[in-house]
Write a structure and sequence with these properties.
Elements (H helix, E strand, L loop, with lengths): L1 H16 L2 E7 L2 E7 L10 E5 L9 H9 L2 H7 L10 E5 L7 E5 L10 H18 L4 E4 L11 H15 L8 E6 L2 H15 L1
Parallel strand pairs: 2-7, 3-5, 3-6, 6-7
Antiparallel strand pairs: 1-2, 4-5
Helix pairs in contact: 4-5, 5-6
Bound molecules: adenosine-5'-diphosphate (ADP).
The site of adenosine-5'-diphosphate has 21 residues, from helix 2.
Length: 198
Amino acid sequence: MYIFIYNAFYIEICARKRSKIMETTFSNTKVELVTGDIASQDEIDAIVNAANAELRIGGGVAGAIHRKGDPELTQLTRPLAPIKPGEAVITEAPGLPNDYVIHCLGPVYGRDEPSGDLLAKCYKNALYLAEKHEINSIAFPAISTGAFGYPMNDAAQIAFETVKVEAHELEFVKLIRFVLFSEDDLELYKEVLNEIIG
Ligand code: ADP
């Protein structure tokens, strides 16, 4: 109980502290980096869930999203499971401040190969679904970098390179936000993004 209250309090503080530390543009799409909680992205149309194959509540991102969402969210995901690494599915977002949740299964590092291609597929498929639903803004967590063990630096590289290429094809998505859970992760993402934009 105390752990739960502490976690909720910590997440709330993270959300309040959220600061946009970097912003750039790929084609006509704005890309920004913030710290915070993926489940508290109030002004964003679609949030991305770093889901598990069964699309159930879990730890990390999936836990935060399903805890904040209504139980109905789990009812919506159930018939869509299981999904494979690299795949993404979309649901409405009952109980969350967003219109949609896009659930992606990232690769488990060292097990699902080729892991780089599968991680890139998550970002591509999420953007594909966003376009299909005429979504204007989307927020990604650092997919696969938690329980799935993907090195943060490599994951950031793949995320930005994929988004940069896909941005040329985007008609509806005008804002892509990366939500990092710690200041250290944010600094690392910032360095990688700076390298990519040169
Ligand atoms: P995966 O199983 O794909 O590795 P996790 O949920 O374990 O997904 O973690 C993915 C990343 O999201 C990690 O960097 C973790 O620190 C971060 N993270 C965990 N909870 C949240 C949250 N509520 N909001 C944003 N990022 C989060």
